[in-house]
Amino acid sequence: MRKLLVTGDFDIGEGVFPDSVELLHIRCPVDEQQIIDILPEVHDYILGGPEYLSARLIDIATKLEHVVVMGTGTSSFVDVEYAKKKGIRLSNTPYMNAHAVTEFTLAMITVSLARIFESIEGVKEGSRWLQTPRRSLSSLGIGFVGMGAIGTEIAQQLQKRGCKDLHYWSRTRKLELEASLNLKYSSLIRMVAEVDILCVHIAGGSETRHLIDEVVLKRANPKLMIFNMSSPGIICPVALKGYLQSNTGASCFIDGYYNEWTDNKGHCHDVHGLLSLPTTNLAATSHLAGQEQQTVKNIFTCAVIKVLEFASDHKN
C-alpha cells in the first residue's frame, strides 16, 4: 500500500483515493516535526501547505518517490536540485491559479489606493478620520515584471477598466500582447521610474533572485506602489528597506515573506527589518493570493490525477 501525505487547509472528500492508497492529511502543519514524524513512510506527497521540503526533510523521506506542489513555483516549496539528486519526481499545477491571483491582486491594489491600512489605524487610534479621494486605476501608469498567464490576465482586466498606460518588462518580448493590449515594452529601470504601480508576476529562481535591487530601486518613482505576488526573493530585501525608508510615500505589498512559516518570528526577530516598517509602507501576507475555494479544489483534483498516474506507472 502506498502512503500519501497531503498538506493544506482544505477538505478531501470520500472516495478520492483507491483502497491501495493510505491517506495522511495534515490540514495546518504547526511545525516541521509533524511532517517529520510521517515522512519516513511516505511514498507520495501533495504539498499544499506552508512548509518547505528542504534537503534535511528529503533525507528523512527515504521512501519518497513523487512530490506534487499545488501551484506553479516549485522552487519556493522544495529544494529542487536536491530532490532531483535523490531521484524524486517533481510535479506542479501551473497556470491554474491565474484567475484567483488576478482577483486578489486587483483587490489589493484597490485597497492600497484607498489607503485602507492607514484608515484602519486612524479609526483604531482615534487620531484622524481619513476621507481623501482615491485615484482611479484608469489614471495611473501600471507596469508588469513578467508577462505570463497572470500578468496577461491582469493586464486584460485593467484594459477593461479603462487603463491605457500599461508597461511591461519580460525576459522575452510578447509582440502579440503588445498589439492586443497596447502594452509598452520597457527596460526595468525605465519602467520603475515612470509607472505608479508595479506588479511582479515572474517565476522565482536563481535567474530572477534580487532582480529588483538597489540599482533598480534607486531610479524608482518615490511614490511607487509595488505588488509582489511572486517569490519575495525577486526583490532584494536590503534594497527594499532602504528604498521604503528613503521614500515614505512608497509602499510594497508582498504575498509571502523572506522568512516564512515557522522561520518567521515576527517583527521583533526579523533580520531584514522590514516587518517593523509601518503597514502603510510594507504589508506582507501568508500566500493568500491563490487561496480561492474553487481554485484550490481544481488544483487538488489535478494533483490527485498526477499522483494516481505516477502510482499506476510505479506499482510496487
From TrEMBL:
Coiled coil feature spans: none
Keyword Transport set for record: no
GO CC terms, sorted: cytosol
Alphabetized GO MF terms: glyoxylate reductase (NADPH) activity; hydroxypyruvate reductase [NAD(P)H] activity; NAD binding
Record-annotated D-isomer specific 2-hydroxyacid dehydrogenase NAD-binding domain positions: 108-289
Catalytic class of the enzyme: oxidoreductase
Source domain of life: Bacteria
EC numbers on record: 1.1.1.81
Keywords: NAD, Oxidoreductase, Pyruvate
Keyword Oxidoreductase: yes
The D-isomer specific 2-hydroxyacid dehydrogenase catalytic domain, residue ranges: 26-313
UniProt record similarity statement: Belongs to the D-isomer specific 2-hydroxyacid dehydrogenase family.
PANTHER family: 2-HYDROXYACID DEHYDROGENASE YGL185C-RELATED, 2-HYDROXYACID DEHYDROGENASE-RELATED
Name by which UniProt lists this protein: Hydroxypyruvate reductase
